[in-house]
């Protein structure tokens, strides 16, 4: 038996041996010349073919001249092999039965190859020439036969093997025309199903022809050895010569009316597409970052202006005395005429506020009962995606027509100590296999899959047992699925999830070598040809999953380079289940099954010490977030307790150790904390009555914010009282009222600024930020009202207790030690007055280093990352962290995405179909073609696998060559096609382009879908490339939206398309990452509207003091910019959570800044420097004790939280905000005021007293 040589060109030595043997066996007496046949007629079944997908009828040996066919044969010939038709001169080497069998055989390939007419015609020509060509004897040589009379009871000698000589030019041309033809339904290439062992990746001309001539493929009726001599090969001899007929390039028309292949199926037909431009990089000026240069210019300009100011305003011989003397002289020269309207307004307003708060009575607002009606929102979609956002609207459209996105449960398994090994395959040669691809591990893996697939789960809610089939996605049998109908993707599905198939072995001979074929070979075959129903390895097993669909390699394994799947380091197991409405009983079934699934996989992980098992379910992320929230509640509670302890101890005015229990303010501190909590509860109650939902962000952040604001006001009020001596004849209540009159305007200034700031912040469209701003605004207002009412009453009671010399907490008891006279100023105020303020404001120390910090942070601000990675939302000990890290490392394909079309497009017109499809006759800028172009640049588009198209599938289904659509009413599409279709739905078109008319479209589409279709919305599925960071997810969304908008623009130009028609992308992640497309603008808007009231309220409450308002605004803006800059240094991303904290930062900055600014503005010291010193010492000490030292202990406790989200966005970010607020308020602001403060504001106001 002669074997096919391994290359197109044979050596001379081999050639002569082969020629001698051929002459000896067959050539002698055989006529090889033009017009002669070597085989004709039918000699029955091939006795050596065991597995049959078709009737394997072999021809009979017949070395006679070609015959003139009958008319019926000629008519069939015009359809099947038009290249052989030559009118009256037509001669054939096949009978009508052979031609009919050839037609039936070719139709199986025509289904996919007809997309490219040139490929189809070249493919047909290969078979037509050697089966029916009139010059058959020139290039065909029979090499082995059998006695058909004995075997099939047919007179004649049957052909078992033959040699077919095609020129290398012809063979390569035919292969090149077909190698890029696609299968849109599966996103692969047609050649992958026609190249046997090698698939589309390894397929070449030889492999392709070898598969055609291999009887083990279930299609070939006899073995054919294809040989491809080229111009350098020796002559064959005996008059034989290789067939070297016309071959059409895929970019050429194979006939006058036929179009060339489409770009999607032929690279040569594609227009030259310029590579998309690179994403815009950093703005640079001569290779230096532009923002760095701008910041340097700003810094130098400010420094220059500051130096000019110093030169013009300071007497370098006497320091500040010149300035001070000037201010005192001006003060002496002032008269009532010099008092401006603005200053009169300011003085009148301060007096009015003082009188109003002196008479403020106790006011208790009881709204906390409403907290029982609070609805807590935990759904991330509801939290971070606006109901009227584009992503939510598109999600609603998708879910309306196609149902919610599937639920996914996935397991990724890797070996702890992977030892690669080399497998010597008889068919594929030596292949390196990774340590995870060992039979014992695969059997263990299969055991886990079957356990999960068949495990019963008892439903407590419905008192019944459920299994995977009750909730799974079963595309082949959705109405009544069995266990094997569920979509389960894994490597063992190449073996139909049967251990017997994994254990199967067979001895075989290949290329003269003997060896064993086992699971390795079947695996290698299936990863190259996942659509194969039967391998050609000798095992003859199916590659399709038991649920009836192919398993593509990227769904079965991960962690490989290129397409070296055997070196994959990870096994993937994916269960796809349906998503249900929460009101549906099946939704609870899904949750209960997933809970049991997690338990089983966790136990498997513990029992498999040699494997790394990473796993997740659809419920995992929410479960883990809820778990860590519950786990961190004690941390927040401890934080509040620490703050309470600090307030209680710091408020005390201690005179001696023996009087600590009298001088302490534990009860008052507790009352202050309760006032804050009362304000928070009242705010929550009001919004609960109004039906506004709450969230965990509100519960965790708002108390901190209000506590910072409240504690500051508490300290300012209590310290002012302690530092104020009671006037002669003044009662306790009058003393307290006078102190309240002094500090309440400052408290109002800050509280009102913050409340208006937060109310304006609620204008954002981001639900979580919006509700946070609303809750915070009302809580701040309630806190202020309760402090000037309820807390004032508590202070009065505490003063009465202390004056009666009673113990704190146990107020009924009195100590034996008599009361001592106290130092009204305490310890902090004298220290700051004597040391800190003079040091800070000394002429040699007043250097504005903050301007440099501001400019540096301005540069860093432009480098902050936007987004929130999933890992950050999880606790450090979460199994989901392991899964996400494993997924990012090993998965080679990202999430599936859909291109969804809305109503208003007519798919039934030819123009409508051509604007969508990708096969022959389709537009070069069709939807499918544009998506394909995008996939060609996956590094820019983040698309890796092009979309599958039901329009292309429908057109292929209608193709009369496929016999899929027969004009018989009893037929169903795909599964019950008659063996012979006498009348196809569509007639063969002269140009090869199949397009139904609108009537045919609407008639046959229901049959194609086996259902009543709706064209209100359709979808086309593609795959993203692997996406790891939130920046990649955001970029992917941005790019795919741009692609969809481009497609929409093109399709709207099709006649009959509605103006509001659109194509939009959808996948489950888009609603989460859409916010990052606009969050920078949202952040600027929110912070901008929050800054406005800080300026306006400050101006109004200080009597239109614009300068003080500007200073307030500038310093708060600096705090925010510096905070964002430090976020870059400390790896804190900019997202909705950090935006909430930045809005909070504006509020907290008001506390650090506004009290100091007002104290400076109301000071009657003769110079700006002296007023700055007084404000720093007097109000700075209160701010330091009330804001900074109240926040810091609680924030430091949050550093011990388990949740990374809390550690990063509540510990790190709040610590940064507090430290920067303290630095700007207690260091930078006094320096600025000493230079640029309005020195004469109330100096002239003295005249009004």
UniProtKB/TrEMBL annotation:
<dbReference type="InterPro" id="IPR032190">
    <property type="entry name" value="NPC1_N"/>
</dbReference>
<dbReference type="Pfam" id="PF16414">
    <property type="entry name" value="NPC1_N"/>
</dbReference>
<keyword id="KW-1133">Transmembrane helix</keyword>
<feature type="transmembrane region" description="Helical">
    <location>
        <begin position="1083"/>
        <end position="1103"/>
    </location>
</feature>
<keyword id="KW-0325">Glycoprotein</keyword>
<dbReference type="InterPro" id="IPR000731">
    <property type="entry name" value="SSD"/>
</dbReference>
<feature type="transmembrane region" description="Helical">
    <location>
        <begin position="739"/>
        <end position="761"/>
    </location>
</feature>
<keyword id="KW-0813">Transport</keyword>
<keyword id="KW-0443">Lipid metabolism</keyword>
<dbReference type="InterPro" id="IPR053958">
    <property type="entry name" value="HMGCR/SNAP/NPC1-like_SSD"/>
</dbReference>
<comment type="similarity">
    <text>Belongs to the patched family.</text>
</comment>
<feature type="transmembrane region" description="Helical">
    <location>
        <begin position="633"/>
        <end position="654"/>
    </location>
</feature>
<dbReference type="GO" id="GO:0005319">
    <property type="term" value="F:lipid transporter activity"/>
</dbReference>
<dbReference type="GO" id="GO:0015485">
    <property type="term" value="F:cholesterol binding"/>
</dbReference>
<dbReference type="Pfam" id="PF22314">
    <property type="entry name" value="NPC1_MLD"/>
</dbReference>
<feature type="transmembrane region" description="Helical">
    <location>
        <begin position="839"/>
        <end position="862"/>
    </location>
</feature>
<keyword id="KW-0753">Steroid metabolism</keyword>
<dbReference type="InterPro" id="IPR004765">
    <property type="entry name" value="NPC1-like"/>
</dbReference>
<feature type="transmembrane region" description="Helical">
    <location>
        <begin position="1110"/>
        <end position="1132"/>
    </location>
</feature>
<feature type="transmembrane region" description="Helical">
    <location>
        <begin position="773"/>
        <end position="797"/>
    </location>
</feature>
<feature type="transmembrane region" description="Helical">
    <location>
        <begin position="291"/>
        <end position="312"/>
    </location>
</feature>
<dbReference type="GO" id="GO:0030299">
    <property type="term" value="P:intestinal cholesterol absorption"/>
</dbReference>
<dbReference type="GO" id="GO:0012505">
    <property type="term" value="C:endomembrane system"/>
</dbReference>
<feature type="transmembrane region" description="Helical">
    <location>
        <begin position="666"/>
        <end position="690"/>
    </location>
</feature>
<dbReference type="GO" id="GO:0030301">
    <property type="term" value="P:cholesterol transport"/>
</dbReference>
<protein>
    <submittedName>
        <fullName>NPC1 like intracellular cholesterol transporter 1</fullName>
    </submittedName>
</protein>
<dbReference type="InterPro" id="IPR053956">
    <property type="entry name" value="NPC1_MLD"/>
</dbReference>
<feature type="domain" description="SSD">
    <location>
        <begin position="632"/>
        <end position="797"/>
    </location>
</feature>
<keyword id="KW-0153">Cholesterol metabolism</keyword>
<keyword id="KW-0812">Transmembrane</keyword>
<feature type="transmembrane region" description="Helical">
    <location>
        <begin position="1138"/>
        <end position="1161"/>
    </location>
</feature>
<dbReference type="GO" id="GO:0005886">
    <property type="term" value="C:plasma membrane"/>
</dbReference>
<feature type="transmembrane region" description="Helical">
    <location>
        <begin position="1182"/>
        <end position="1201"/>
    </location>
</feature>
<feature type="transmembrane region" description="Helical">
    <location>
        <begin position="696"/>
        <end position="719"/>
    </location>
</feature>
<keyword id="KW-1015">Disulfide bond</keyword>
<dbReference type="GO" id="GO:0042632">
    <property type="term" value="P:cholesterol homeostasis"/>
</dbReference>
<keyword id="KW-0472">Membrane</keyword>
<dbReference type="GO" id="GO:0008203">
    <property type="term" value="P:cholesterol metabolic process"/>
</dbReference>
<feature type="transmembrane region" description="Helical">
    <location>
        <begin position="1213"/>
        <end position="1236"/>
    </location>
</feature>
<keyword id="KW-1207">Sterol metabolism</keyword>
<dbReference type="Pfam" id="PF12349">
    <property type="entry name" value="Sterol-sensing"/>
</dbReference>
<keyword id="KW-0732">Signal</keyword>
């Amino acid at each position: 038996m002669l074997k096919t040589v391994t290359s197109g060109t044979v050596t001379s030595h081999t050639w002569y041996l082969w020629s001698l043997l051929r002459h000896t066996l067959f050539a002698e007496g055989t006529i090889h010349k033009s017009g002669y046949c070597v085989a004709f007629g039918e000699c029955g079944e091939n006795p050596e073919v065991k597995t049959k997908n078709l009737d394997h009828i072999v021809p009979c040996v017949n070395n006679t001249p070609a015959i003139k066919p009958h008319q019926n044969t000629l008519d069939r010939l015009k359809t099947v092999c038009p290249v052989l038709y030559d009118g009256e001169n037509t001669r054939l080497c096949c009978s009508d039965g052979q031609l009919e069998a050839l037609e039936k055989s070719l139709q199986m390939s025509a289904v996919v190859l007809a997309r490219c007419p040139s490929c189809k015609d070249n493919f047909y020509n290969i078979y037509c020439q050697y089966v029916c060509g009139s010059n058959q004897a020139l290039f065909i040589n029979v090499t082995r036969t059998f006695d058909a009379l004995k075997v099939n009871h047919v007179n004649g000698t049957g052909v078992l093997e033959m040699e077919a000589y095609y020129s290398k030019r012809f063979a390569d041309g035919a292969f090149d025309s077909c190698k890029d033809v696609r299968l849109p339904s599966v996103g692969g290439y047609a050649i992958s199903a026609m190249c046997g062992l090698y698939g589309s990746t390894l397929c070449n001309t030889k492999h392709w022809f070898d598969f055609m001539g291999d009887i083990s493929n279930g299609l070939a009726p006899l073995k054919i050895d294809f040989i491809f001599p080229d111009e350098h090969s020796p002559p064959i001899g005996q008059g034989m010569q290789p067939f070297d007929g016309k071959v059409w390039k895929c970019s050429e028309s194979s006939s006058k009316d036929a179009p060339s292949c489409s770009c999607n199926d032929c690279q040569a037909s594609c227009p030259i597409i310029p590579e998309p431009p690179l994403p815009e990089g950093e703005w640079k000026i001569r290779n230096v970052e532009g923002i760095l240069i701008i910041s340097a210019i700003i810094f130098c300009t400010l420094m220059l202006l500051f130096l000019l100011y110093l030169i013009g305003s300071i007497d370098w011989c006497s320091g500040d005395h010149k300035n001070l003397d000037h201010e005192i002289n001006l003060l002496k020269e002032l008269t009532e005429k010099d008092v401006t309207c603005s200053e009169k307004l300011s003085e009148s307003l301060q007096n009015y506020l003082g009188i109003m708060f002196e008479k403020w009575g106790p006011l208790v607002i009881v709204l906390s009962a409403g907290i029982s009606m609070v609805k807590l929102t935990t759904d991330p979609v509801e939290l971070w995606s606006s109901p009227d956002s584009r992503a939510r609207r598109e999600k609603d459209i998708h879910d309306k027509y196609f149902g919610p996105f599937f639920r996914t449960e996935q397991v990724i398994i890797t070996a702890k100590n992977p030892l690669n090994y080399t497998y010597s395959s008889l068919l594929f040669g030596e292949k390196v296999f990774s340590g995870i691809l060992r039979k014992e591990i695969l059997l263990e893996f299969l055991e886990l899959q079957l356990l999960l697939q068949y495990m019963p789960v008892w439903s407590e809610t419905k008192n019944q047992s459920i299994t995977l089939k009750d909730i799974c996605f079963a595309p082949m049998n959705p109405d009544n699925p069995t266990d094997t109908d569920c979509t389960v993707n894994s490597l063992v599905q190449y073996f139909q999830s049967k251990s017997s198939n994994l254990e199967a072995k067979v001895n075989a001979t290949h290329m003269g070598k003997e060896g064993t074929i086992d699971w390795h070979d079947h695996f290698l075959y299936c990863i190259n040809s996942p659509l194969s129903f039967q391998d050609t390895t000798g095992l003859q097993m199916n590659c399709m999953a038991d649920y009836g669909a192919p398993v593509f390699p990227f769904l079965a394994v991960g962690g490989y380079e290129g397409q070296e799947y055997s070196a994959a380091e990870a096994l993937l197991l994916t269960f796809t289940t349906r998503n249900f409405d929460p009101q549906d009983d099946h939704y609870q079934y899904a949750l209960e099954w997933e809970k049991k699934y997690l338990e089983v996989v966790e136990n498997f992980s513990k029992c498999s010490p040699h494997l790394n098992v990473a796993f997740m379910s659809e419920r995992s992320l929410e479960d883990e977030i809820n778990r860590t929230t519950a786990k961190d509640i004690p941390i927040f509670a401890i934080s509040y307790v620490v703050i309470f302890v600090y307030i209680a101890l710091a408020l005390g005015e201690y005179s001696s150790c023996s009087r600590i229990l009298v001088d302490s303010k534990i009860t008052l501190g507790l009352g202050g904390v309760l006032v804050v909590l009362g304000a928070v509860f009242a705010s929550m109650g009001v919004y609960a009555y109004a039906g506004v939902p709450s969230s965990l962000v509100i519960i965790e952040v708002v108390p901190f914010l209000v506590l910072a604001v409240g504690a500051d006001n508490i300290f300012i009020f209590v310290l002012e009282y302690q530092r104020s001596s009671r006037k002669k004849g003044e009662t306790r209540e009058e003393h307290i009222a006078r102190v309240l009159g002094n500090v309440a305007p400052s408290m109002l200034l800050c509280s009102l600024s913050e409340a208006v700031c937060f109310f304006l912040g609620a204008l954002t469209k981001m639900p979580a930020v919006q509700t946070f701003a609303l809750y915070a605004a009302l809580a701040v207002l309630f806190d202020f009202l309760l402090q000037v009412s309820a807390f004032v009453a508590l202070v009065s009671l505490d003063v009465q207790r202390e004056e009666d010399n009673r113990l704190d907490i146990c107020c009924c008891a009195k100590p034996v030690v008599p009361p001592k006279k106290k130092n009204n100023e305490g310890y902090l105020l004298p220290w700051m007055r004597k040391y800190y303020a003079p040091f800070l404001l000394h002429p040699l120390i007043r250097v504005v280093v903050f301007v440099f910090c501001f400019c540096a942070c301005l540069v860093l601000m432009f480098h902050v990352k936007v987004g929130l990675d999933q890992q950050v939302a999880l606790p450090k000990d979460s199994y989901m962290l392991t899964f996400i890290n494993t997924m990012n490392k090993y998965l080679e394909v990202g999430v599936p995405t859909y291109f969804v079309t809305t109503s208003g497009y007519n798919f039934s017109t030819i123009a409508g179909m051509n604007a969508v499809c990708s096969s022959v006759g389709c537009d070069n800028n069709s939807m499918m073609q544009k998506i394909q172009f995008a996939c060609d640049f996956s590094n820019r588009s983040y698309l890796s696998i092009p979309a599958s198209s039901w329009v292309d599938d429908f057109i292929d289904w209608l193709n009369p060559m496929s016999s899929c659509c027969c004009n018989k009413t009893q037929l169903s599409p795909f599964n019950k096609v008659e063996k012979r279709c006498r009348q196809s739905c569509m007639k063969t078109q002269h140009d090869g382009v199949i397009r139904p008319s609108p009537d045919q479209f609407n008639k046959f589409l229901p049959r194609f879908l086996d259902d009543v279709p709706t064209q209100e919305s359709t979808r086309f599925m593609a795959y993203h490339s692997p996406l790891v960071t939130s920046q990649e997810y955001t970029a992917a969304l941005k790019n795919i939206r741009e692609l969809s908008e481009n497609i929409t623009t093109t399709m709207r130009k099709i006649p009959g398309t509605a103006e509001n028609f659109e194509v939009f992308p959808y996948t489950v992640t888009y609603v989460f990452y859409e916010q990052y497309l606009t969050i920078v603008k949202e952040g600027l808007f929110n912070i901008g509207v929050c800054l406005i009231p800080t300026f306006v309220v400050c101006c109004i409450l200080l009597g239109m003091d614009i300068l003080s308002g500007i200073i307030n605004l500038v310093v708060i803006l600096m705090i925010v910019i510096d905070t964002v800059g430090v976020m870059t240094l400390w790896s804190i991303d900019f997202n909705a959570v950090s935006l909430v904290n930045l809005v909070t930062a504006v509020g907290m900055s008001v506390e650090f800044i506004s009290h100091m600014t007002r104290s400076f503005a109301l000071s009657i010291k003769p110079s700006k420097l002296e007023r700055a010193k007084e404000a720093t010492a007097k109000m700075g000490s209160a701010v330091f004790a009330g804001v900074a030292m109240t926040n810091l202990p609680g924030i430091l406790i949050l550093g011990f939280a388990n949740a990374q989200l809390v550690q990063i966005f509540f510990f790190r970010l709040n610590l940064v905000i507090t430290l920067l607020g303290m630095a700007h308020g207690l260091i930078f602001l006094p320096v600025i005021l000493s230079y640029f403060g309005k020195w004469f504001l109330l100096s002239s106001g003295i005249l009004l007293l």
